[in-house]
Task: structure prediction
Amino acid sequence: MGQLVPWLIFIATLATILGALARLAARTRRRGVGLEVMGPVDLVYRPHTYEINQEIRRQEQAAVEISDSGQPKR
Result:
């Protein structure tokens, strides 16, 4: 029993840390913070991914402009 308690504490601590990281990842995805953080990394190491993300942002902005005015901007 004496050797079981440290392992249980270790597993509980590990589960707590992983749970906190999962919640942080979900919050980051909801708020869209990840693109701002990963933007420079994508630009250097994965330029194609950076270009795709930029295109997605342009399309989202165009959709917002269309919905705001009712007609597309030219």
Summary: The two ends are 74 Å apart (CA to CA). The CA atoms of residues 10 and 18 lie 12 Å apart. The mean pLDDT is 83.
